[in-house]
């Protein structure tokens, strides 16, 4: 999920806050991946963006308390936990509003699925950065194939090239990504890729 070209009033307010300990860098580093993480729950881009922006406001309001343990891992854990809880609350609220209400609470989402979503968000963020370093043609085809999920024939038709050229560029892209990405990130990416092809 990409950062929208024009952010709404909330994100403008976020950027106008005093920067303190690299708040702007923190926002830029985690906004996109947290939006994707939330989107996996709420299935709505605008709601996901609202939830993430609220999470950054909450972080800002608690920054003095958090500064006592201000490691990257602690901040990341705070943001992901806040977005997760807000996303689950939004799901419950939406089910009530849409007359999907039942006597029992909505089925809980297993912790494994939440961890899986965090990992996927982090891997996709690393993948986007790695893809941006590839040669232009290889980059475009790899993004269409691996991120957009387009078939080789669809890519070939859209770009006006042969299917064999698409296959060659995708193979080259994988070889380059294997060199660029950390081994564990590349392995997870390949696993996700295999899952998407079997679904």
TrEMBL record:
Keywords linked to the UniProt accession: Sigma factor, Transcription, Transcription regulation
GO biological process, one term: DNA-templated transcription initiation
Domain of life: Bacteria
Short name of any one Pfam family annotated for the protein: Sigma70_r4_2
Protein name (database record): RNA polymerase sigma-70 factor, ECF subfamily
UniProt GO molecular function: DNA binding; sigma factor activity
Organism: Daejeonella rubra
Domain RNA polymerase sigma-70 region intervals: 26-93
């Amino acid at each position: 999920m990409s950062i929208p070209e024009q952010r709404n009033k909330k994100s403008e307010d976020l950027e106008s806050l005093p920067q303190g300990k690299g708040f702007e860098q923190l926002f830029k580093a985690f906004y996109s991946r947290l939006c994707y993480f939330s989107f996996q729950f709420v299935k709505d881009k605008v709601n996901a963006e609202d939830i993430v922006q609220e999470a950054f406001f909450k972080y800002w309001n608690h920054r003095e308390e958090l500064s006592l343990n201000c490691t990257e891992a602690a901040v990341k854990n705070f943001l992901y936990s806040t977005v997760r809880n807000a996303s689950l609350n939004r799901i419950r609220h939406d089910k009530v509003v849409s007359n999907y209400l039942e006597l029992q609470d909505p089925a809980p989402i297993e912790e494994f699925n939440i961890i899986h979503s965090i990992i996927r968000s982090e891997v996709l963020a690393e993948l986007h950065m790695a893809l941006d370093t590839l040669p232009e043609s290889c980059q475009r085809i790899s993004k269409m194939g691996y991120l957009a999920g387009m078939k080789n024939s669809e890519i070939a038709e859209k770009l006006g090239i042969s299917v064999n050229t698409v296959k060659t560029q995708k193979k080259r892209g994988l070889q380059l990504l294997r060199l660029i990405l950390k081994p564990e990130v590349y392995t997870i990416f390949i696993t996700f890729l295999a899952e998407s092809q079997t679904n």
